[in-house]
Amino acid sequence: MKIHQIYTYNDLRNFTYVIELGDQDAIVLDPWDADEVNGFLAEHKLSLKAVINTHEHWDHTRGNEALVAAHQCEVWAHQNGEGKIPGMTRALTAGETIDLAPNLVMTVMDTPGHTFAHLCFLMTMAGEPRAVFTGDTLFNAGVGNCHNGGSPEALYQTIRAQFHTLSDAVVVYPGHDYLENNLRFTLHLEPSNALASQWLDRVAGNDPGQNQVVTSIGDERSINAFFRLDSEEIRQNLALDQANDETTFLALRKRRNDW
Ligand SMILES: [Zn+2]
Fold first, then answer.
1. Pick the CATH number of 2-258 from 3.60.15.10, 3.30.70.870, 3.40.50.300, 3.20.20.220
2. What is the reported pTM?
């Protein structure tokens, strides 16, 4: 498996992913610009097997129709995306495993919160979980908003039950580049977080199309405020010293909306 992260230079800072499966086969996740994807596929002599969408928002499905027209490929997405996701041919369900190539398995995660038609995808190579495509559920150093058909309570449960449990080495490939802003948010609530400061020094002003920066789940535990609900400093800054984790998460999500 080779993962190509394409930064799209739009205002929303979307990432599209081309995932090489071997034998010149590829799948595309969340295509923003079909022309750009087609150029990439041609340049690398790749044949497109399927488009996968993490969720139904237009900025994640914008390239679907033109790619289907050009490649007659399938489109895989959440069952709740039917009627909303252009060209959808296959509904994926929670826990489903798909053998993409020898020794490469994709496990479907049903991850409500940003919307209720949101999937994430865990890639396991030779039995080792290696990468997770997280759409607008988990970002590098942050989590998605819940403004357009979502629920912060559901997002809390998703992050707690499905992302805290992943192993530290798993690399996080999100739907947008919000890393710098998210680090600033973590530091706004937890100024003493030295690792977050180091990350910010590293990525401030970075162009993700020129210099790819990835985080792992282990990094997220250190630099993502939404993974750090037991930080005393964060709780004090939210005036929530005695609150439980869910209340803290919801307060963080609200603070991030207003920030
Ligand atoms: Zn979205």
1. 3.60.15.10
2. 0.97
